[in-house]
Automatic annotation (TrEMBL):
GO terms for biological process: respiratory electron transport chain. This is FAD-binding oxidoreductase. GO terms for molecular function: FAD binding; oxidoreductase activity. PROSITE patterns: FAD_PCMH (PS51387). Gene3D superfamilies: 3.30.465.10, 3.30.70.2190, 3.30.70.2740, Uridine Diphospho-n-acetylenolpyruvylglucosamine Reductase, domain 2, Vanillyl-alcohol Oxidase, Chain A, domain 4. Belongs to the FAD-binding oxidoreductase/transferase type 4 family. Residues 36-215 form the FAD-binding PCMH-type domain. Keywords: FAD, Flavoprotein, Oxidoreductase. InterPro entries: FAD-bd_oxidored_4_C, FAD-bd_PCMH, FAD-bd_PCMH-like_sf, FAD-bd_PCMH_sub1, FAD-bd_PCMH_sub2, FAD-linked_Oxase-like_C, FAD-oxidored/transferase_4, Oxid_FAD_bind_N.
């Protein structure tokens, strides 16, 4: 814990009102969206990169462990201060500083809310495409630190693709100004890429130059009911061969039942499918709409789709997306044990069936809910807690299941964390996706950026 003397030194760097150790504040700022319990020493809110650098330099001198904090929407414990660390919140570094219309870039501090960047891009007649359910509260610095993905990866890729430059305070307290918006820059190692997805273990993202793109035209959704996983993947192949898609999401009939029942929403189709796919595309003209309908009709004729509906208005577009986007919040009441998994899209059907078999054999009392971004190979597995089972026993049981699931995942050379990061919750499983040599090299990189080991200690690996 921090001594009074060190606390006062920190207060002198940022101001008395920008540091706190009040109990409710420690609990609020010291954790993310997991159920892990916070045990932070204090919360500090630097206002600019100079203050941030000064905090890191003091932390190095005094060997103070630091936990970076952005929007705290993470699901792997990456922003949890569990061992008396000092939480450094980037909340107040939230300025959008500079827009370049020619380069289509915007410079923003790490504390800018994702939705605010999206709105700013729209004001300039452009588009920031990285989008997910927590865009209204997640921060750009956190998105970069976790290489956030979301619902439009199929067309636009991950956050990594949209970072044109970074200004970083390393774990050693140095400032790196990297890449500076260049599209071509083959001058040795791309250090910027190491910071993206590093979960705050190498340094603090202080400022980012983000790329923007043209706004999509008339986004339209086609929701299909399909009879099986194999049919779902055939529909994906069918539509990808026939037109450009911006998203291809899926969810199970069980997921749809939960959402429509809990939120009193209308079911989208008359026919009941085992799964549903939500296909998004730009309906720039009638020819594209006609092509989408022709593909849909072919799927019906081949029996790989049972029914479907296409959005005819912005309101209907939003209502169809809601069926997918509300799943996570609706399932929260069952305290699900979550997995964020990735295997090649072509192998999804076989892999999902194997996972269901594992759970049905080892824990038949558990209900399984699937949904996710199947178009890019990322699926979310939710195992719902039975009412009669306490949370501790349920989590222990699910951890044992996880080992069996990850053994199968490794045979597919898949990822134990497609988009949520490793943090605290998944570091024991990292070896299923990374070799011993890779992990050793990552630890060596951390030593170079963070020689005193003060940056988010215990995250990714011990």
């Amino acid at each position: 814990m921090l001594s009074d003397e060190i606390y006062q030194q920190l207060a002198a760097l940022v101001g008395d009102k920008k540091i706190t150790r009040e109990a409710t504040e420690l609990s609020y700022w010291g954790k993310d969206s997991t159920s892990l319990i916070a045990n932070a020493a204090a919360i500090i809110f630097p206002q600019n990169i100079e203050q941030l650098q000064a905090v890191v330099q003091l932390a190095n001198r005094e060997k103070i462990a630091l936990v970076p904090s952005a929007g705290r929407t993470g699901l792997s414990g990456g922003a949890v201060a569990a061992q008396g660390e000092l939480v450094v919140s980037l909340r107040d570094m939230n300025s959008i500083k500079q827009f370049n219309a020619v380069d289509r870039t915007v410079v923003c501090e790490a504390g800018v809310i994702t939705a605010d960047l999206q709105a700013y891009a729209e004001q300039q007649g452009l588009y920031y495409p990285v989008d997910f359910a927590s865009s209204g509260s997640s921060l750009i610095g956190g998105n970069i630190s976790t290489n956030a993905g979301g619902i439009k990866v199929l067309k636009y890729g991950m956050t990594r693709q949209w970072v044109a430059g970074l200004k970083v305070v390393t774990g050693a307290g140095d400032i790196l100004d990297m890449n500076k918006s260049l599209l071509k820059n083959n001058t040795g190692y791309d250090l910027q890429q190491l910071l993206i997805g590093a979960e705050g273990t190498l340094g603090f993202i202080a400022e980012a130059t983000m790329r923007l793109t043209r706004s999509p035209e008339n986004l339209t959704v086609l929701l299909l009911a399909v009879p099986s996983l194999s049919a779902l993947l055939q529909v994906l192949a069918h539509f990808q061969a026939g037109m450009e898609l911006t998203a291809f999401e899926f969810f199970s009939e069980q997921a749809l039942q939960k959402v429509t029942t809990q939120l009193q929403l209308q079911r989208p189709c008359d026919e009941v499918g085992q799964y549903y796919t939500l296909i998004e595309f730009e309906a720039k003209d009638e020819a594209i709409v006609d092509q989408a309908m022709a593909l849909f009709e072919q799927c019906l004729e081949q029996g790989i789709a049972l029914d479907g509906v296409m959005s005819q208005s912005q309101a209907q577009y939003q209502s169809l997306w809601r069926l997918r986007e509300e799943i996570s919040s609706v399932l929260a009441q069952w305290q699900p044990f979550k997995h964020d998994l990735s295997v090649p899209p072509s192998q999804q059907g076989e892999f999902l069936l194997e996972v269901e078999k594992i759970i049905s054999e080892l824990a038949p009392q558990y209900q399984v809910i699937w949904y996710g971004h199947i178009g890019d190979g990322n699926v979310h597995l939710n195992i719902l807690k039975p009412d009669e089972l306490n949370k501790t026993d349920f989590d222990l049981s699910c951890k044992l299941l996880s080992e069996e699931i990850f053994k199968h995942l490794a045979s597919y050379q898949g990822s134990v964390s497609a988009e949520h990061g490793i943090g605290l919750l998944k570091k024991d499983y990292l070896h299923y996706s990374r070799s011993d040599l890779e992990i050793a090299l990552m630890k060596g990189i951390k030593q170079q950026f963070d020689p005193n080991g003060i940056m988010n200690p215990g995250k990714i690996f011990s």
